[in-house]
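Q: Structure tokens for this one, please.
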Amino acid sequence: MNIATRGMKNAFRNTTRTLSITIILGLSIGLSLVMLIAHQTVQDQIRTTLSSIGNTVSILPAGGFNSLVSESNLLTTDKLQRVRSITHVTNVDEQLNDRVQTVSTAGSNQQPNEATTSLRSPYHLSCSSGVCSGGDIRARTPNGGTLGNLDLDMAVIGTNTPTDPSNIDSSWLTIISGHAIDNSADTDNAMVSKAMAQKNNLSVGSTFEAYAKILTVAAIFNCDTQGGSNSIIVSLPTLQRLTGYTNDITTATATVDSLENLSTATSAIKTLLGSSADVKSDVDQANAALQPLDSVKRVSLYSLIGAVMAGAVIILLTMIMIVRERKREIGIFKAIGFGNIRIMVQFMAEALTLTVLGAVIGLIIGVLGGNPVTTTLVSNSTNSSNSVGAGKGSAHLPGAPSLSNIQNVHAQIGWSIILYGLGAAVVTALVGSALASYFISKVRPAEVLRSE
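A: Here is the predicted structure, written as tokens:
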């Protein structure tokens, strides 16, 4: 019988001890594996979320989400020009938003300073018994009156990126006829939607009136939202001239050269614009939403370290106990010529056998408990974060990763995690038994036999 086989058999020489050690090691390895699964799952979720966000910074007037030019607190072209000079900022897209009423419905309902157009909106509100509805819009008329059919106001977008679908809150924008307008030229050219062109019998080259000026249809586009289809797109200089807001901007988007520099650039823009603007980036919102996962990541990491250290201590103390119990056996081995290496191999084989048995139990615990524990940790952490946020009156910002989505984290237990856990257990066993074997080298055969 070789020395390794003898060590493996020695692991079973005391049934009670073997069972006790196996269960203790199994619980330690199982906890380590559960925390490893939780840590890896949360880390993957954080990495996936951060990699999916864009490298842009949104700039709006202070408190001016979705502001129209009728608001008084607009951004200025001069300030945004200074934003362009900030390090890592590669481009700034500027936008001015307004709305126009169709001439046929303005009449006595026209608001002060509100512009009109000869176009008819492709959508209207049908009002009956005080309830108005149309498309995805539903509203109740004042005092429950009946107003018949009302054309919706139309949005006018002045932008230096006329083909960007985000200007009209759409996910895509396609030019189906004509050519996109010149983004920097102050011309009386406009882009209208396919729905609006059909409603008003327009084609490329047709004209219509807006702001008491004659505008020419340079392009017809298609998009995927009703709001986008109810929009007129012109160049930024054009709308600034038509509205008289020659130096004003409703909203802007700064593009940063890389995701790594997004936080730095965002901070620089906030410092530059101060309290006159609301500056936010996807990374700010993502970090805020991912804060609960960071907490889970820390807890799982500390628990993992603690479980691994506990397993190592258990193995070390177990082997020290075994060595102390079998000093006579070790002395006899050394007396008949066994070297320290052979005896160390025997005890390492014994420790490895006990660890493998414990690893089997630990793997079962890890596989069964990995997902429930991860889900519980994430759920408790996100609920706590929601409670704190609600107490501070915080609100979910548009575009931020939703806590409800982040809370739906499911552990993926692959072979890599199982192999990592098993490998860590084996290494811990070998290191622990090697340390215990240090005491073996101190045993003197003559002293052991004389004491016996």
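A few notes: Residues 340-391 form the longest helix (52 residues). Residues 65-71, 106-110, 135-148, 388-404 have pLDDT under 50 and may be disordered.
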